[in-house]
Amino acid sequence: AECPLPSSDAKAFSAKNFDYIIVGANALLLTILLRIAEAQPHCQVGVLEAGVFHRDDPLVDTPGELSLFSTRNGGLTWGNRTYDWAYVTTPQAGLNNTVIATPRGKMLGGSSGLNLMAWTRASQAEYDAFDKFAPGHGWTFKDLLPFLKKVENVDKQSNPFPGISSAALSNAVQTGPLFAGSAGPVNVSLNTFMSGDVFPWVQSHNALGVSTNVDPEDGNTAGVRNLQVAVNRATGNRSYVGYYCESVGRSNIHHLVGAQVTKVNLVKKGSLVTATGVQFLSAGKTFTAKAAIEVVLSAGVVNSPQLLELSGIGNSKLLKKLGIQTMIDLPGVGENLQEHIYSILEWQLKPGIQTFDEIRNNATFLQQQAVQYQKHHDGVFASTDSAVSYLPLQTFLNASAVAAQAKAIKKGLPELGPLTKLQKKQYSIQSSLILQGVPQVEVIQLSKGLIVPQPNVSYMSVLVGHQKPLARGSIHINTTNATAPPVINGNYLNNDFDVQTILQGLKFALKLASTPPVSHSVAALISPPPGLTDAQLISYIRATGSTGSHIMGTAAMAAKSDGGVVNGQLKVYGTKNLRVVDTSVIPLQLATHSQHTVFAIAEKAATMIVAANPAG
Ligand SMILES: Cc1cc2nc3c(=O)[nH]c(=O)nc-3n(C[C@H](O)[C@H](O)[C@H](O)COP(=O)(O)OP(=O)(O)OC[C@H]3O[C@@H](n4cnc5c(N)ncnc54)[C@H](O)[C@@H]3O)c2cc1C
């Protein structure tokens, strides 16, 4: 049955007495809503979302609409304010002073309704590193695994990429249930349409010593893999509002859409600050909503720090300048921004190799596929790109070069930002992750032309992304106007390590494309132009770089004395009952797409919230 539309009646919402209020209906936050409502049926839980539910909207639901955007002259949701907050950074010196688009989903389901649907985990060592920022609260891989599994329902078709022995495959089939969930609300699957350049690309990886990873969810992410996506194979749709649909029947859950929270209402009682509710805007009018037990911010990595500052929680110097009364002086708010930076490459393929470009080049194929999707919910329109590899530095550098790199990072960098203690700790961990062979670079193959595709030509594009940059940026308000965008400054590519890592990855991608068998499919390198020196390639990276929309860390879980914003229970320091549960709390960048991890964090947060308020 279809999920009903949520309410937009602000007056009725405002008149209720809530126990819990949740700000931002991102896909994962709804887990908390549901779990609290299940555990404490006598409690009233309200969630406010600035955007709306785009129900039955193919631009959100149909995977192909996004994965084909480049070939259909689109960018149909990204940058479109009906779906996207459409933020931008300040001019980034490391990227030739370009202003970088920073999309964030503005809808029920948050950025999970806008994203590329990749459904991946980080490696065991990276989750274990989480625990070092808030010891004793259960943030290791072992602790998180039940939550990672709980959120997903993995449709395990056997679609092994080349390079897997039958022994490895049968082992993975046996161990699969140890790592894959089968009852969660997010449907996870593998693509059913594979472009002609995918298998050769995987085999060229194998030829260069990068093996095929049969079960990349088991804590070891290195290698090339068939990418899991949050797509429901039965409907062929993006899977992102499962929690919402599960929760709508409950009488103690109340959703309000079209409501932008402008402030958390705080009162100082003794040494702690208590959140009593929120102020919000709906259709131009201001309302309040009261929460007796807790307020949970899940407004996302950009808006959660913004709301903290608007509410008087942040660096007192900044707040004072804007005339905001400081409720809690917490200089870490909005700092510690970490983001994946990608560089793009593109090759023209030889005639006869079928890619997503076929949709652009062949009207008959387009028509066939449209019918196929409508009737059977599969084919190109139910698909995204498949081949992704995660590569440690050891793929590009010899052991002594890797050791030298790790040592340099451990020593620290001149670019240390304001949270010196936190960064030193992070760099020390990053150094050890490098030595352990934890992937630093992601290579995504995109079977289509992205730059300037020509008619009747097929392309292979590749994104090379640095997963663990040393750069740290920030998000801060510069006005008390809650509807004005915050100032986002990533400091992207502000240091040599970040630039060199992308350079190494880019050169490896060039090598891959000239290695058989994929080299037999390639007609010509289009971008960057062939034959560039390292210095010229660096200029190319700076001129064409973009981000992965995986910003993390802007309200980090870390010790307060290090510049942390939330503790191991995700509670904001100095507050009695205000938590942040979204990508902002991740203390250190992960070499993965972020949504699966954040869903698991939300499931864990839900258990912590219920346990902390046993009477409800
Ligand atoms: C373009 C793009 C592509 C991505 N691709 C992938 C991918 O393929 N795989 C992957 O794993 N991850 C991907 N990500 C990242 C992933 O989607 C996010 O990590 C995940 O959605 C969680 O993000 P978040 O914590 O910032 O919250 P969001 O999901 O952004 O949710 C925040 C919610 O709060 C609402 N909100 C904000 N401010 C207010 C306010 N003041 N009042 C009320 N509501 C408010 C927003 O409208 C939104 O619904 C991508 C992200 C983007 C933007």
UniProtKB/TrEMBL annotation:
Active site: 550 (proton donor), 593 (proton acceptor)
Cofactor(s) the record lists: FAD
Entry keyword set: FAD, Flavoprotein, Oxidoreductase, Signal
Residues holding FAD: 261
Cited Pfam families: GMC_oxred_C, GMC_oxred_N
Family classification: Belongs to the GMC oxidoreductase family.
Protein's UniProt name: Alcohol oxidase
Source species: Rickenella mellea
